[in-house]
Batch of 2 targets.
Target 1
Amino acid sequence: MILDELVISTKKRLHQRQKKIPLTKLQDICRQLPPNNKKNIFMARLQQPELAVIAEIKQASPSKGMIVERLPYLKIATEYQQAGVAAISILTEEDHFSGSLAYLEKSAQQVATPILRKDFTLDPYMIYEAKAAGAAVILLIVAILTQQQLEAYLSLADKLGLAAIVEIHNEAELRMALKTSATIIGINNRNLDNFNVDLTTTSRLSSLIPPDRLIISESGIQHPKDAAFLYQTARINGILIGEYLMRSDDKLQAIEELKQAVND
């Protein structure tokens, strides 16, 4: 399965980084960081009446291959900020998404918009890494975590002042997520086993989520009409959108069209 390959490569890269920078050093860096309110800004944006947009920066994916040849990520991050997105999602997985933690770190220095570290969080080390690099939000994928890990990582994220999106893509994973304190549930419309996409996944699963949890629909949004479909058929607070924006020559206009489609 593709997800198994992603986990294996993530662990390999993680072990390499751990040899270069020990956990104790990362923890020291995190302790010395000045306080900020980016987590609160992100949470507040998700709770606004209008649909929040989390705009993604990624160069490639296992399902689509190379999406763009060039990745002027700082320029893109600046454009996303100008468009008023709720957060910027940055892929940091290297082998399958051509991502880099350096992209996140440099973007966080340039823009004030909260940044989500989009990766396969497998170890507390990666949560400290995200904080040290300037992330305000992390992703926790239920499919690759135990219940105990999920609860421990949520607790650590909260301790570090990070928001966490707990990602699910079926009923069993939703049950796990709802047993935790997770405030934000991300519904992935892409099946992580075969990468097939079905937008009705959000419509179906959102109806099972209590009203006190915030919901983000992820993956498969290829057109403003897809955003409109999700907004009309599901209870969602935001959408995470990557490939559509990465392929767009005018990202500000593309984001405006997404918002207009929902409001029409």
Target 2
Amino acid sequence: MFERRNIKHIYLKITRQVKDFLLSDKSREFFIFLFFFLVAGGFWLLQTLNNDYEAEFSIPVRLKGVPNNVVITSEPASELRIKVKDKGTVLLNYMLGKSFYPVTLDYSDYKGVDNQVRIYAPQIERKVLSQLNVSTRLLSMKPDTLEYIYSTGASKLVPVRLQGTVSAGRQYYLSDTIFRPDSVLVYAPEGVLDTITAAYTQRVKLEDISDTLKQQVPLRVQRGVKFVPASIEMMLPVDIYTEKTVEVPLRGVNFPADKVLRAFPSKVQVTFQVGLSHFRQITANDFHIYVSYEELLRLGSDKYTVKLRNIPKGVSQIRFNPEQVDFLIEQVSPHYGN
């Protein structure tokens, strides 16, 4: 209750003060000053707008009447930037009242050589000047030449390739590079189409990745070439390294029927790094240590340095224990093992 009464009292007090000010001599003098200030400002603005000025505007560009069997592989500029000069009142009309219509190009009006069309400044200026006031001077236009390249339906499917560098952080690795889609349709004039073997992404530089990354990547723009789609989704699966040890036997190959390999020890511990997601998949059976009879004869020693004949995919940082084994070639009966 007290608060309502207090608010009402403040409202009445402010209303009384405003009313007293409006009826005072000071307020009359203020409004007279404000009136003449606005009149003077209006005359100044009219005088200012009567001078010549330069201004820039944009006009949209449209290409129409393209046949169904024609693919525009290099679109013309989407807009023209024009610089004009005229009185301020005319330029103000362009800014506030008049919007420019698109400059329309009809495909059938222009004949191209080698699937390429160029429309030069004089042809474009006529379309622009028709929208300007008679008193307006056209100072410049960018671009001054419109160009488009087209293909009459010739296309092919090409694979997507990464351009750039990607690297994982410490103790991580990139297990794959996946593109979706992994191939795109390319349209180009036949002479150009024959030279295209892949669609490359725009240059990518990603470092110290520690988690699976997914992002949209535009394809590299080539003059006169159109890729559908123009961008792809790139996924970089990231895995963390872990260490694993397996025991792999040494096996002799190409030994005569009456000779056999004796190695000490007969098995070698192979320690390696592998992604956590592949830890269970990689086993001792994925490693092969084959020792050929001819290689041992060439050694001239009874110690063999362990080497792998194959390395499973996704395995790195391989170590052996021991790195060397003692061996001997034992003479046996030709019927040994039967």
